[in-house]
Amino acid sequence: MMFSHNRPVVSVVVPMYNNSRFIGDTIRSILGQSFSDFELLIYDDHSTDDSVELASSFSDSRIKIFRSPVNLGPEKNWNRAISDVRGRYVKLVCGDDILFSECLEKQVGVLENPVHAGISLVSCQRTIIDPEGKPLIKKVNFMSGGRIEPVDVIRKMIRMGTNIIGEPVCGLYPAELIGKINGYSAVVPYTIDLDFWMQLLKHGDLYMIDEPLCAFRISNLSWSSRIGELRHSQFLEFMEQAASDKSHEVTDLDMFIGRINSAVQSMTSLMGFKLFANHE
Length: 280
Fold this sequence. Notes:
By secondary structure, the chain is α/β, with parallel strands linked by helices. It is built from nine helices and ten strands. Helix 5 packs across helix 9 and helix 8 packs antiparallel against helix 9. The N and C termini lie far apart (40 Å).
């Protein structure tokens, strides 16, 4: 598809902090999209490595790089990244994740289809990769494909005790919704993405594409690994917040099952992170 010199269809924003090991692969995966009508905004959070130099080595008119004079932390830098987008739709890609070549094309196709009016978030399945980019899990599949109402998404998420929508790299949403929500909140750091997804789902349904269109990387450098030991307690806090909203129709049984599954998911994740720590 041709790139418009006016307003792009998509704003891809990349919050970056000391991602020199991976940022090249991330940028190449974005520039290699079959859908080309996008701007790529990279927000460096005062990196102390050569992330900015590596990002600046790419010659493409769609790329703009912004540097912060101080370290803001993930929450503020993510909100800064979505504060000045020109696209109709927005995708946030962390500086170590990967988009597969048809990701934007297929997700934009959903939002542009009149049949899918009222969709506030398009997500997709994802592949989990290691620091070398090798697939660990080729398809994380907690949800079936198609349109799903918010109450069904939230209740299932609580019962599963984990993130069934996906990390930020999985989602694409209308930019017009940014002014209607409160942005990213790290009050509960582990669920910063889930809190954001729930805000979006106040304004429409979820559409899940049942194929992996992106890759989420696990490494010692990822924010998820650094807060891994807090995963269970923070997911329980998220569950309580979600259940307190009566419109979510969360039951006591949902919460009971979710507490058990969250503990299991947390132990599994923590073991995985520790294996990577020993491997790296």
